[in-house]
Each structure stands twice: as C-alpha cells, then as structure tokens.
Amino acid sequence: MNILKNLGFGANNKPTASMENCAIAQGPEDDVPPSGQQFAQFGAGCFWGVELAFQRVSGITKTEVGYSQGFMHNPSYEDVCSGTTNHSEVVRVQYDPNECSYDTLLHVFWARHDPTTLNRQVR
Q1: Is pTM, for the whole model, over 0.90?
Q2: C-beta separation of 62 from 19 below 8 A
Q3: CA pair distance 79, 84, nearest whole angstrom
Q4: For residue 113, what is the DSSP state?
Q5: In terms of CB atoms within 10 Å, which of 81, 96, 119, 122 comes out highest?
Q6: CA atoms of 79 and 53, how far apart (whole Å)
Q7: How many CA atoms lie within 13 A of 21 on its CB side?
Q8: Per residue in 34-91, pLDDT tens?
C-alpha cells in the first residue's frame, strides 16, 4: 500500500469512465430548519475538529457531519479517506441568527481550519 496516497498525495481524483455518466442524484437537501433557525455548511479537510468547535458556540442548536460532492453514492469514511471519491468532509450547522451571527460562524470556522495544511486539516 502506498503511504503517500493514503496521505492524499498522488490520489486520482478524476472520475473514471464509468463514473462520468453516473446517474447518482446529488442535489441539495430538501429539509428546512425549524422556524427562526438557519443552516450553514462548511467544508474542511476533517469535520471532527470543526464540528466540535461549532458545538461550543452559543446559538448553535445542532451540528451534522457528512460528505459533499464526489463520485460515489453513500460513501463510507474509508472510501472518502482513500482520496478516490472526490468528496469533501462537511459540517452542517443549524443556528439561531438572533444569538449567533453568520460572521461568528465564519470566525469559528477560519479559527479551526487552515486550507494550507496537509489534507486541509484543522488546527
């Protein structure tokens, strides 16, 4: 097994011929937040640290982690970590804008996420 590929170097992120014509629906979520709440979604190299930072912010009522984009329907964590599915790890935040501004969410995100690090991991 190539250790560099596991670290995200040299991974083939281009769709294969069978993936290019894939008919997997990957549209937006059709749920809506409760009255008075809003959703925001943030992509990071790893969602665990970013999610934990958001959970500590007053006004955030719910967090969810998952994957966005990519070529595989319903990928596992191992699939995404392989670097071959082209998915991004994301955190969706449900928040009360009267208690927590979107600017606050951006501040929390950028305080934890450094896109210049290996695999765009969190600090």
Answers
A1: no
A2: no
A3: 7
A4: B
A5: 122
A6: 25
A7: 2
A8: 999 999 999 877 777 889 999 999 999 999 988 888 888 888 888 888 888 888 888 9
Distances (CA, A) of 121 to 47, 51, 92, 96, 111: 9, 13, 17, 27, 12
Is 81 known to be catalytic?
no
In order of start, what are the domains of the chain with their CATH numbers? 35-118 (3.30.1060.10)
Q: Give the CA angle between residues 13, 64, 30 to the nearest 5°.
A: 85
Phi-psi group of 64: left, alpha or beta (phi > 0 → left; psi -120 to 50 → alpha; rest → beta): beta
- Angle between helix axes 47-55 and 102-112 (nearest 10 degrees) is 140
